[in-house]
Amino acid sequence: MKNSELLLAASVPLLWGFGFTFAKVGLNEFPPLFLMGLRFSLASLVLIWFVPIPRGQLKQIFWISFVGSTLRYGMTFTGLSMIDASLAIIIIQLGVPFSILLAAIIFKEKPGIQRILGMLISFAGIILIAGQPSLSGQLPAILLTAAGAMMWSVGQVMVKRLENPPSGFALIAWIG
Prior knowledge:
- By secondary structure, the chain is mainly α.
- It is 75% helix and 0% strand.
- It has helices at residues 3-26, 32-47, 58-80, 85-92, 95-106, 112-130, 139-160, 168-175.
- The longest helix has 24 residues, at 3-26.
- The two termini are 33 Å apart.
């Protein structure tokens, strides 16, 4: 792997971490759903002018947006408003094992033993973290954040089911 590819791969979780940190700061000033709406409105107002209208797919994109963005970020930001950003960042990573489970159920993909072990370790880690005495009373926030990760996974499955999907850039603009 080239250094530029390694840097690009490392930038994704780094940017996600910054995003949650800034969201946590924003949640001190705005309610979770308003902050989510503001975020997507601003992003889509910037992007929408540069992409064509995905005719014939707007209904599907609406539902992807509702499940994969509105429900996901509504749950995630509401959970984030009640727990530390670092804990929320760890919990939201459950989107990966949830996606593998959904792909196995819906697309009949076979995850293999390594992925199954990885998923078990992921879920066990979250259970261990959630069971810490210092997190007493925060189970609803943890569950909301995990449900947000699940909604992201459902949204990804919905995207995969799109026939002739628009480019990733166009899809993000219209989901916003």
